């Protein structure tokens, strides 16, 4: 599918809001501003998203913050965010955290500027890799990676040990994207420590986030040793990917996965191919974007399931009913787990693991009829707050309730109120991949285990551009099989029929 190129003609990179918002004065900001530095009093640099959520509650649906001379506009009101979703007037803005990833991901799909020709080329070449047929092809591999996870959890259950949920979900999602996309096995489940690729990736994400919170001219000085480490991390990522590509070329091609597409497929209209440099950037992009966010989504969902046994029982009853005693659920049986999917959506509502995206004006326009914007002026959509706006989600928006996603409830809400995957032409290309993978894994885990929470655990959310429940451990307990040996059907919990 070829989309019209997005052309805005405005300068790239960071633009302080003074340049683009002629009536910036009308937008509220935190009360105590420090000259030159801005709104830095009491700022916690390791949790910028949760900090912005606190400001949002105090300042309202459109607000601004200033840090080290740079002014940012945040939007989270449902009405205003819906206006920003109008593709005829707004487009993706590569700003802040995303632009900081350019040294590693360059003009890869996620970090490309709208006008860069490689965005359209890569989008058109790679989009068929996310079609329904392609997903059905990935399903058996997703299942086999999930079985590695359950073997690992079985051992923990037998020993009565808790499991490290974010750690294990990260292993699972990394292996899934690496194998389905690139035919590569990182051996994550065989390692006691994270794979060096993961360590390097977490290093670059953390560094990119830190760049947002230090004054730009001072960054080279303040982050000198961190920046050297970052260079080493990027070199490691590049090296891993180059090896992967070399190995693929050496065997003369794979079975039509994403890497084959990147290396072999030509654009249907122009006959162009991705350059070797661009392939490197795309592989890094997909390995990073394809696992970090899904791993967080699964971890939050498991946290809420363990905290709400009645919801877990209802979800489990659905899995038992839909999957019966099939050992290996088929591709079509995953989409039929409607309630499990709602659990996932509700987790992504409260903690959208990619917690913000930016939108810029294509032309002179007025945001929601209130705030004039010049071409190139941009705003950050703060998704966790959009997903809590009482106008869209009601007064109990903090409450975990998967029924918010039943078909009728969804129909009764205004459009553009649920945006965990971004919006428009630059929305997430991996959405179906992530949802299929996560629903499958939740189904498998619910069917196999009771999930016991640590009663002392209080949800703490850690931030490294993406969100993750920090220190979450659960104690999985095997459920009793319903039938004789060889059957994988687990007994439903008594008294919890769906
Ligand atoms: C729960 C999991 C996921 C979440 C919450 C998520 C979220 C997002 C968001 C919000 C964007 C838009 C960013 C922006 O506007 O700046 C995005 C873009 C993207 N995502 Fe995802 N994502 C997830 C999973 C995946 C997976 C599994 C893949 C790959 C297999 C992937 C690959 C990408 C790519 C390549 C883009 C850039 C698309 C473009 O600009 O053309 N994501 N994602």
TrEMBL record:
<keyword id="KW-0349">Heme</keyword>
<keyword id="KW-0408">Iron</keyword>
<dbReference type="InterPro" id="IPR017972">
    <property type="entry name" value="Cyt_P450_CS"/>
</dbReference>
<dbReference type="InterPro" id="IPR036396">
    <property type="entry name" value="Cyt_P450_sf"/>
</dbReference>
<keyword id="KW-0503">Monooxygenase</keyword>
<dbReference type="InterPro" id="IPR001128">
    <property type="entry name" value="Cyt_P450"/>
</dbReference>
<keyword id="KW-0560">Oxidoreductase</keyword>
<dbReference type="Pfam" id="PF00067">
    <property type="entry name" value="p450"/>
</dbReference>
<comment type="similarity">
    <text>Belongs to the cytochrome P450 family.</text>
</comment>
<feature type="region of interest" description="Disordered">
    <location>
        <begin position="476"/>
        <end position="498"/>
    </location>
</feature>
<protein>
    <submittedName>
        <fullName>Cytochrome P450</fullName>
    </submittedName>
</protein>
<keyword id="KW-0479">Metal-binding</keyword>
<dbReference type="InterPro" id="IPR050196">
    <property type="entry name" value="Cytochrome_P450_Monoox"/>
</dbReference>
<dbReference type="InterPro" id="IPR002401">
    <property type="entry name" value="Cyt_P450_E_grp-I"/>
</dbReference>
């Amino acid at each position: 599918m070829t989309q019209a190129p997005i052309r805005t003609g405005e300068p790239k990179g960071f633009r302080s809001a003074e340049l683009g918002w002629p009536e910036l004065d009308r937008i509220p900001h935190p009360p105590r501003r420090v000259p030159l530095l801005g709104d830095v009093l009491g700022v916690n640099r390791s949790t910028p998203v949760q900090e912005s959520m606190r400001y949002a509650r105090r300042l309202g649906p459109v607000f601004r913050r200033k840090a080290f001379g740079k002014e940012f506009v945040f939007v989270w009101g449902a009405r205003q965010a819906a206006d920003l979703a109008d593709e005829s007037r707004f487009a993706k803005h590569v700003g802040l955290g995303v632009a900081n990833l350019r040294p590693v991901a360059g003009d890869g799909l996620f970090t490309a500027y709208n006008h860069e020709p490689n965005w359209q080329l890569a989008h058109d070449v790679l989009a068929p890799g996310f079609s329904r047929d392609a997903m059905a092809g990935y399903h058996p591999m997703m299942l086999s990676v999930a079985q590695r996870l359950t073997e690992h959890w079985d051992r923990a259950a037998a020993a009565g040990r808790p499991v490290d949920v974010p750690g294990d979900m990260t292993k699972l999602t990394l292996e899934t994207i690496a194998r389905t996309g690139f035919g590569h096995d990182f051996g994550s489940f065989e390692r006691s420590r994270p794979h060096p690729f993961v360590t390097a990736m977490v290093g670059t994400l953390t560094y990119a986030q830190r760049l947002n919170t230090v004054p730009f001219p001072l960054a080279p000085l303040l982050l000198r040793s961190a920046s050297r480490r970052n260079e080493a991390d990027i070199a490691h990522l590049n090296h891993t990917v180059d090896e992967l590509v070399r190995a693929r070329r050496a065997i003369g091609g794979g079975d039509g996965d994403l890497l084959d597409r990147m290396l072999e497929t030509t654009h249907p209209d122009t006959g162009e191919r991705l350059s070797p440099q661009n392939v490197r950037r795309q592989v890094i992009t997909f390995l990073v974007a394809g696992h970090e966010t899904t791993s967080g989504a699964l971890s939050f969902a498991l946290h809420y399931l363990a905290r709400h046994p009645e919801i877990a029982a209802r979800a489990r009853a659905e899995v038992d009913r839909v999957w019966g005693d099939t050992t290996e659920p088929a591709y079509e049986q995953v989409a039929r787990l409607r309630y499990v999917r709602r659990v996932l959506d509700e987790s992504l509502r409260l903690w959208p693991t990619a917690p913000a995206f930016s939108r810029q004006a294509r032309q002179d326009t007025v945001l929601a009829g209130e705030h004039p914007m010049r071409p190139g002026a941009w705003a950050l959509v703060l998704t966790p707050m959009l997903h809590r706006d009482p106008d869209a989600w009601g007064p109990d928006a903090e409450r975990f309730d998967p029924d918010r996603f039943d078909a009728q409830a969804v129909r009764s809400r205004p459009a553009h109120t649920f945006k965990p995957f971004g919006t428009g032409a630059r929305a997430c290309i991996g959405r179906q991949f992530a949802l299929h993978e996560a629903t499958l894994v939740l189904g498998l885990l619910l069917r196999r285990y009771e999930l016991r929470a640590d009663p002392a655990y209080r949800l703490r959310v850690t931030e490294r551009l993406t969100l993750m429940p920090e220190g979450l451990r659960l104690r999985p307990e095997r459920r009793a099989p319903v039938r004789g040996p060889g059957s994988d059907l687990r007994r439903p919990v008594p008294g919890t029929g769906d």
